[in-house]
Amino acid sequence: MGFHPLDIIVIVGIALLLFGPKTLQSLSHSAGRGMSHAKDMKDKLMKELPVEELSQFGETFSQIPTSPQQVAQKLIGSSLKSDEKKEEAEVTAEPAQE
Question: Distance (Å, rounded) from C-alpha 8 to C-alpha 16?
Answer without folding.
Answer: 12
